[in-house]
Amino acid sequence: MPHPIRPSRRLDQVSYDIRGPLSRRAHQLEREGRQILRLNIGNPGAFGFETPEPLHRAVAAGLRASEAYCHQQGLPQVREAIAARETARGARAVSADTVFIGNGVSELIDMSLRALLDGGDEVLVPAPDYPLWSAAVRLNEGVPVHYPCAAADGFLPDPARIEALVGPRTRALVLINPNNPTGAVYPRPLLEALVALAQRHGLLLLADEIYDGITYDGAVATPLAPLAGDTPCLGYGGLSKVHRACGYRVGWLSVSGAPAATAALRERLELLAALRLCSNVAGQWAVLPALAGDRSIEALTAPGGRLHATRQVLLDHCAASDLIDLVAPQGALYAFPRLCLPGIDDQQFALDLLEHESVLLVPGRGFNIERSDHVRLTLLPQAPVMAEVLVRIERQLERCASQAVPLARTA
Question: Hey, where are the domains in the chain?
Fold first, then answer.
């Protein structure tokens, strides 16, 4: 009998509940013939959204020019287009040489932290966060230090509480704006205060802005790099959400700030980019029409648009419910409601909801919070589907409330 292979212990503290045990159980139920309403992943194509036609045409036209490796940082003309957008916004010292294209933002987050961290270095990460951030810090031998973004504060952070967490090993501050999972959109004065904090402590700003074009009811997503000025900032964007092209796997990273302050980090990023040769070439051609004028997302988020309508169904239902409380999402593709039952356990609730009601959500603790009374759901279904999902959630909450012995432990 061969000896069992021992996997890396580095993964012991890493989880990704968005595609974790609940999702595997949903696959099993589907194989048994159940129809599952999957609201666990922000994957527009799975809900009938289509990538804009100009992006389709650009990829098709570029296929023959996509058969060789390109420059490790990405196609030059694509990087120039990204740099031009960042410069037009007011970012400092961005050029094609400071732009890196990756197989989605996920790869670039990992590359950035690998280029930055030594073992034991700390990174300030929001709680709740998109769990890839905490996972990538740990996988690169760093320590995520979570700063609270409480529902009572509209899921916005308090700069003073963040500053209290800064220590001698703190290297970077992560901002996710618009936020996944909460839908919070950070106002400009808050962003300015966070830039000032980074300046005082010599922190690298890591600005996850993949949802920057998805806002509702007049909310404005302010890019961080122009506010940062000379302060080193890595800004992340891509095609997957705003342009509904998840499967193209095209994200970008722009390095801004005083060139002398970012030079060594850029060298490390280029080395890591070269080690993986290059990112998907064919998908990169879609960046040019996307940045040249694709504003199709605006019709979806405006009143009368599909995303706006689904969000409104959720807002109306929660306003009338005694069992679900919601801070209205101002951006992105998610909501992070609170389940208003004492002692509710989000993981047990999500499992029971799947088993009894065939709805798949993500427990709130999968986003690195201590409370056990939140869940995340995506706003991508059609409005009638969202209405049905909410009926099923209420029904499961009523089951929990009727239990003589609570199903859950206290948060």
Answer: 9-50+299-402, 53-293
- For residue 338, the SS3 value is strand
Spatial separation of the C-alpha atoms in residues 69 and 61, rounded to whole Å: 17
Summarised one tens digit per residue, pLDDT across range 45-83 is 999 999 999 999 999 999 999 999 999 999 999 999 999
Which H or E element spans position 207? strand 204-208
Q: Is the pTM of this model over 0.85?
A: yes
Edge-to-edge strand list for the sheet holding 362-363? 334-335, 375-378, 362-363
Q: Work out the pLDDT band at 13, boundaries 50, 70, 90.
A: confident
Q: What is the DSSP letter of 402?
A: H
Instruction: Specify the CATH architecture of the domain 9-50+299-402.
Output: Alpha-Beta Complex (3.90)
Tell me, which fold does domain 53-293 have in CATH? Answer: Aspartate Aminotransferase; domain 2 (3.40.640)
Asked if residues 349 and 371 have their Cβ atoms less than 8 Å apart, the reply is: no
Of 1-15, 67-81, 195-209, which gets the smallest average pLDDT? 1-15
- In single-letter form, the type of residue at position 147 comes to Y
What's the pLDDT at 9? 84
Q: Do 196 and 224 touch, CB atoms closer than 8 A?
A: no
